[in-house]
Amino acid sequence: MDFRKFGLFIWLVGVSCVSLWFYSNFPKFCIFCENSQDEVLPKENFRRTRGDFLQLPDIDCQENPPFLVLLVTSSYNDINTRMAIRQTWGQERTVAGKRLVTFFLLGSTVNLGQEADIAAESQKYKDIIQKNFTDTYYNLTLKTMMGVEWIHRFCYQSSFVMKTDTDVFVNVFYLTELLLRKNRTTRFFTGFLKLHEYPIRNRESKWYVSREEYPGKTYPPFCSGTGYVLSTDIASQIYHVSKSILFIKLEDVFIGLCLDKLKIRPEELHSEQTFFPEKITFSVSLFKKIVLCHKVKPSELLRYWNRLVAAYHGGVP
Ligand SMILES: *[C@@H]1O[C@H](CO)[C@@H](O)[C@H](O)[C@H]1NC(C)=O
Ligand SMILES: *[C@@H]1O[C@H](CO)[C@@H](O)[C@H](O)[C@H]1NC(C)=O
Ligand SMILES: *[C@@H]1O[C@H](CO)[C@@H](O)[C@H](O)[C@H]1NC(C)=O
């Protein structure tokens, strides 16, 4: 081997090593790695690759699995509400020895400034799950399924998942107490039950669904999208079965269609009503015995939360 050939050889080896190192550390720059990775890697590894997520929260569910993961559908403009949730029910805490974590589900916008804001917020709080789909009300099903996929890939070791919204008050203490008391760890789905709903064919309605989108006369049982809770084992089942379900923009109905296919029927968490998909008037005694209520503004959220926690006298359950 003459000197020049040897030099070229060394140069090629060097370039290869640097490329390998670079792409294994920054896979998002690799234009041909991402697609093939999902198929080639064994299942456990597939679950932990970044996939097409733009933002991921900082948690290792294998190392320290949470009991309950709260996933909150949110969008760029909700920043004040996200801050209020981070300071109240969404703060990471331990209840009755069980770890609770909260993450926000976001789509994306074409506005690069807003995207940079989201990236910065994600860097700071490490609680954002984001994919590249247009963030609109009609894409709520995609947002929910992104959360389900995230659980399936990254946090299948948790015990329960709650999907809820930003304008919701969640009494995480009572929810944890009821889940522990119920002692159901598999095939469990609960919330505000909607057992006999049917498609609204009035075009003026926010919930209008055309016959093309959903030809059926009635919906299968589902739970109000304001907040529902599932045992984590069914998250992967929903993820898999969702691929064979006709897409419908109403995310709670879509989940109901998945459950129907899996032959899982939503059940009550408690003999008394604890999920309130409407606004209810605050009182400490009432809010101690609810799981959630709807239509709560950020300022109300902070006020209600402080009063609730004060009532527990720091001796939080
Ligand atoms: C998101 O998708 C759009 C259109 O599909 C594309 O132009 C854009 O580059 C994508 N953004 C990122 C961050 O991947
Ligand atoms: C949903 O997101 C997809 C992917 O970004 C986009 O093409 C579509 O227009 C969105 N749908 C609506 C109704 O906004
Ligand atoms: C919870 O259920 C399991 C069986 O599913 C049972 O072995 C256990 O004793 C139950 N625990 C309580 C506290 O009821």
From TrEMBL:
Pathway listed: Protein modification; protein glycosylation
Membrane topology classification: Single-pass type II membrane protein
Top-level taxon of the source organism: Eukaryota
Annotated GO MF terms: N-acetyl-beta-D-glucosaminide beta-(1,3)-galactosyltransferase activity
One GO process term, biological-process aspect: lipid metabolic process
Major subcellular site: Golgi
Enzyme Commission numbers on file: 2.4.1.-
Protein name from the UniProt record: Hexosyltransferase
Transmembrane segments: 7-24
Keywords: Glycoprotein, Glycosyltransferase, Golgi apparatus, Lipid metabolism, Membrane, Signal-anchor, Transferase, Transmembrane, Transmembrane helix
Stored InterPro entries: Glyco_trans_31
Record-linked Gene3D superfamilies: 3.90.550.50
Compartments where located: Golgi apparatus membrane
Annotated family: Belongs to the glycosyltransferase 31 family.
Catalytic activity: a globoside Gb4Cer (d18:1(4E)) + UDP-alpha-D-galactose = a globoside GalGb4Cer (d18:1(4E)) + UDP + H(+)
One Gene Ontology CC term in the entry: Golgi membrane
